[in-house]
Amino acid sequence: MSQLNLQRIEIFPIKSLDGVALECCAITAGGILANDRIYAILDEAGKVVNGKRTPRVHQLRTGFNPALDEVSLRETGRSTAQSFSLHERAPLNRWLSDFFGFPVTVQHEPQKGFPDDLTAYGPTITSEASLIAIRDWYPELTLESVRRRFRSNLELGGTVAFCEDALYGAPGELKPFAIGDIQFAGHNPCQRCVVPTRDPDQGNPVSEFQKKFMQLRRENLPAWANASRFNHFYRFAVNTSIPATEAGKILRVGDVLKIS
User: Fold this and answer.
1) Where do the domains of the chain lie?
2) Cα dihedral angle (138, 236, 233, 115), rounded to 10 degrees?
3) What is the pLDDT of residues 182-197, one digit of tens each?
4) Does the structural domain 6-33+115-259 have CATH classification 2.40.33?
5) pTM > 0.90
């Protein structure tokens, strides 16, 4: 493969809600991108309210101020948004509770965030070429729709689809690589949930999305992918972790990928 550069960084300040594209981002002491999924909406049982459990999440549109300490919320199809402080969250909790129809609270964890995978807690990585390939599998979708369905943090440039499948190894192996001067460990291809099957604005499903994805993912698996990591083929993007030694370093769009 030719040289690959980081072409997009996206964080999701509130887990399961809309993202924010950045030109650069620091690494926290907890090994995550700063401000990525550092807030989560929890129900009364302490469980995360997300698109897997609550399809109404798809109908929430969010925006953030530059400091990422204020969020604006509106329902898809409505033009008027309401803004809330993320420091004083009681009004935000009330608005979201009314929106979902059950009590919720927004919790904050600035260093470790709220990752799905407590072992591979770092940013997920894909490439634009892979997103384009998947878009071509579903002619009714746009590239941006595919990007919003899979919600990866880091997107590589280049023209080779599924180049990111070179960033993990055999079962039990952590594959080292770097982007710029930041060290990563590649864990595995990410097992996907129901969320990518749904329209990111309304939550409406694409018929047989998962079945078609699994068939075409198998047919298009590149030679450099470790096929033993696929107990099924509804896997896409790479789960990673970042060691504590990288805390405080800055990741930038344009940084070069280097595989050890």
Assistant:
1) 6-33+115-259, 39-108
2) -130
3) 999 999 999 999 999 9
4) yes
5) yes
